[in-house]
Structures are given as structure tokens and as C-alpha cells.
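Regression test attached.
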Amino acid sequence: MTWNIQKWLQTILISWSNFTTYRLNFFLQVIGPGLVFFFIKYNLWSAIYGGNNTIVLGGYTFRSMIQYHGWSMIVLLLCQGMTANNLSEDIRMGRISNYLIYPMNFWEFHTAAFIAFEFLQLFICAVTIGLIGFTSLLGPIHFEVLINAFCYCIFVSIFWFAIQYLTGIIAFWLEETWTLRVIFSIISGFLSGAIIPLELFPTKLVEVLSYTPFPYLTYYPVKMFMGEVGFFPKGYLILGVWLAVIIIINKIVWRKGIKMYTAAGM
Amino acid sequence: MKHYLDVYKEFISTNFSVSLSFRTSFTLLVLMDIFFYLSTLLTIEFIFQHISSLGPWNKEQLMFFISFMLVIDNLHMVILSESFWVLSHQIKTGDIDFILLKPIHSIFAIFFRYPRPSSILNTFLTLGVLFFYGSKLSLDVMSWILLPFLVLMSFSLLAILEIIISTSMFWMQEGLGINFLRMQMQQLSRWPDYIYSKMARKALLISFPILLVGSAPVHFLLDHSEWEYLIGVLLANVIFFIVMVTLWKMALIRYESASS
């Protein structure tokens, strides 16, 4: 048992150091996109509202819209990892042969990397909230609200990891799997309310979306950070069901994929 | 020139063969672009269900701008996109050595080497959307005649600016992140210049004129009296082409083969 914990701990530490070796690269790849995305949205909504805080669009004043997008930046930073990006390359280049003889298997190694990444993201988000918390950008911040939302976001990030893991192991069959990842992130970026809040969507579409995982990936976590949604069992339940389905698919795909793996760099 | 065209024909033919060998990847690439176009257009559609205008432009004008940018984006996907991702790898592995030995300019050999045939299918779609919104605005004859030239001019400016950004990979040990910076610049250009604050607009129109890519031609097409935008794109193309070539030469001097 001790050996097992040591194994995980060491892998987490190695992954942490891998992520932070090229710091500028990490900033440009992970933090930069979120900041630019927020910068664009701030300017866009400033132009739409024209600085008038009395205008209300879909229930949002200018201030609450900016708060929504401020928290949306934090949610994206916290939840959307990139640890599974190299997974497909590991399969295609035949590098998973190493994992087959390691005392730690493929998913354990990548999960440890994901945990390291989550710690890093938690740290970055805490610093970001600390820095911009002094402005009115995020609105009033309460400790219990933060804890509640952070816990839910960790659950969301597990879902993202499972999805990315799935798109990665499809490399047993596909030459390029990054397209699948990008397709999912385009669809979820739009349907999860990361680009515009769901209140601006047609009502019928929002109804349909409530059965999909999308609103639970950005919209609801943002609402939790804003203090408009408290403990959210419905979110845990719906996302949990989807997560279970994806984990089962992951297991099936891995089992079938590993049978046709030739270790020759497919 | 003929020599370069012949080489480019070979690039296209090789990439066609490669991408048709992996048909699922080919289809997914087409789908990826379509989802991107849909999400972009629907975002504007949903926003305009709650507002009547965004700055000086109404829905049709903004949709025309967005569709203009989709055409540029499609050209970028077809001609350049893949090569930028390969570059960081080529610098790390020293593959550029072989390119430098070839009797063609290294910028051409590196950035035009990997055209993406799958995106050609979507060219018809993006052009269709552009013509649809153009006709909704009842553009005059001059605008229709100038449109292809303006698209090419904008695309060329985007390419020049992105190559300038990419040269920084030669000064870095891991250049992958630069591609994300480049993509963020694209994101900035996908919205009209007037949404940005005064200082940001100035910086992004003059110092690093990424906003000229889409905003300048569309401003001119919608209102011919705004000809200064057109001069801006032309000048930016010339000035930043010189900057690009100079920086590229410096980057190649800095390049140390596989160990760099």
C-alpha cells in the first residue's frame, strides 16, 4: 500500500515538474487562451452595453455579465486540462509498450499527471481570484461559495479528463485524434455557456441541453461561483451518469484497442 | 515563379494522397470546421435576438464581417495552418536542416509544405455564406469586384503576422506555446475593431495590426468613404512583409540545428 502511494506521489511530482519546466510555454498554452478569451468578451459586452449598467439582457446587467465571464474564465482554467493531449501520440508511436512493463499502468500514469495538473490549476486559480478579487470584476466572494464551487469544478475536471482520455485512446484506430478533442471543445464551448450565457439561448434549446452534460460544464459552475446556485445534487447526478457512461466506454475501447496494438508505431 | 508553382502542385498532390489514406481523419477535419462555423454564426444569431445593433453595425453587417473572417479562416486552414504546428517540431528535431538545403526559399518550403485538402470542401460553404450576407447587404458592383482581392490581401496580412509570431520559436526551447499565442491573435481579429477599447484598438491596428485583417476590408466594403482602412491594409502588408523577412533571416542565424 505504501509502495502504491509512493508510486502515485512520485508520478505526480514528475508530472508537476514536466508541466512547469517550460514556464512560458505553459503560460501560453494554458493560461494565455483564457485571458485573451476574457479580454475579448469584456470588450464585446462593453461595446454591447455601451457602459450603461441599467440595460438588462437575458437578466444580466453589464456588471453581472462581466462577473459571469470572469468566473467562466476561472471555470475553464480549473476544469479543462490538457494532460491527455499526448495520450494518442503514446499509442501511435508505440510508446505505450513502456507502460505495459511499468509497475504502473497507462491510465494510472495519466491520472497521476491529471492530478498534478489539477493542483497546478488550483494554485493558478487561487492566485487569479486573489488578484482580481480586489476589483469588482468577480463580485462579492464568500468562502463557503468558493469551496462549494471548487468541489463541483473538480468533479467537472474529472469528466473532462475522462472525455480527453477517450478521444486519446481512439488513436488505436485513428491517425489523428486531436480533431475529436477540438470538435468536443467547440461544441461544449458553445453549448455550455462559455461563450454566451444560456439565458441568451432559445428556451427550447436550453430545455434539451439540460439532459446533456454541456450546461453542467460551465454555466452551472459559474452560477455556483456567483452564489446563485448552492449545493447542486442535480449537476452531480447528471454529470455523474454521463461520467459513468464514458468510463465504461473507455474500458471497452481500451480492451479492444490493446488487442490490436502491435507496438510498432501504428 | 513557375518553379514555385510546380513545387506547390507537388505539395498539394502529396498531401491529397496522405489525407485520403486516412478517410476518417479527413471527414473529422471537415466536420470540425463545420462545427466551428456553426458555433460562430449561431453566437451572433443568439446575441442579436436580444440587441438590434452592435456599435455602428446591424446584424447583417456583422454577419457579413463574420463570414468574411470565416473565408479567411478557411484559406488559412487550407494553405497554412498545419505547417505552423509542424514548425515547432522541425526546429526541435533539426528537420529544418534538410529544408535549408533545398533550392527554394525556406519560408515557402516551411509554411506552404502542408496544405490541408479536407478544408477545401468547406471553401464552398464559407464562400456561400459570404455571398449570402453580401447579397443581403446589396453590395455594389465595385464591392463585388474588389471582394476577392480584399480577401487575398487580408489573408496575406494574416499569414505575414503569423509567420512573424512563429519566428519566436527559434528563440525558445519549446515552441508549441507560440502556436497558442498565434491562435489567440486570430481570435482577436475575429471581432470588429470597434468593440475594443481605444488603447487596445490602437495597439492592434498600428503596432501589431491583426485587427486590420478583417475589420479594414469590411469597413471599406460597407462604406467606400473609409478608404484609409484600405491604405492601412496595403501599407501593413508591405511593412510587415519586410519585418517578416528580416526576422526570418535573424531566426535562421539563431537556429542551431537539432540541439537548439
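Expected vs. actual: identical. Chain B touches chain A at residues 22, 24-25, 28-29, 31-32, 35-36, 39, 42-43, 46-47, 49-51, 54-55, 172-178, 180-181, 183-184, 187-188, 191, 194-197, 200 (CB under 8 Å).
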